[in-house]
Amino acid sequence: MAASFTRCFADSLAKENAQSILRAGVKMKGEDIDGYIVEIEELICLAEYRFDVPQTIEMFTDGLPTGLYQKILELDRPTTYEQWKQAAINRQQDYIHMKARLKAHRGGITTSRPRGWIPRHMLTDPNAMDTSAGRTRGCVTGSEEMNPATMPRGGYISQGGFMQRG
Predict the structure, then answer these.
(1) CA 38 to CA 133: how far, in whole Å?
(2) Smallest Cα–Cα separation from 47: which of 73, 18, 75?
(3) Which long-range contacts (CB under 8 A, 24 or more apart) does 67-75 make?
(4) Of 31, 63, 117, 154, most Cβ neighbours within 10 A?
């Protein structure tokens, strides 16, 4: 009888604990979709929740990173827990594959580099003009002189000044 009581009490405590953790929210850590699925499914089983109810699906989707959730919703439109789970696994695999592919394409460099045709470190001449995107600004020569708002009354003389009209 004592063993039965201990087992029931331990089960009840595990159930309450799991429900409390699920209410607080379980989040996916990093890129580990498998670890997230194992953790949340274990808690759902301990809490004695059903997988096919909207509340359980919502608990699962609330723990996904926003970008992953958006991709799944946009591309897969799952309705059941199993569909959500499989879509999450597939989309996360796609993401990890693309991340590895981009890393390999960039030669293993993951830090951000300036965008443009020539990276800044390739400008070896200290007098070279930096024409990368964001560094150029168009300006018409003499445009400051031709601004009608700043022109005094009179006409413009091409030799470098204004003539006052009488």
Answers:
(1) 46
(2) 18
(3) 68/28, 68/92, 68/95, 71/95
(4) 63
What pLDDT score was predicted for residue 13? 86
CA distance 37 to 63: 10
88: CB partners within 8 A, 6+ apart: 33, 37, 64, 68, 72
Measured between alpha carbons, how far is 38 from 164 in angstroms, rounded to an integer?
85
Contact 57, 81 (CB under 8 A): yes
User: CA 121 to CA 124: how far, in whole Å?
Assistant: 7
**DSSP label at 120?**
G
Contact between 84 and 61 (Cβ < 8 Å): yes
Domain boundaries of the chain, sorted by first residue = 2-105
Extended strands (E) in 10-166 = 155-157, 161-163
Structure tokens, 90:
């597939």
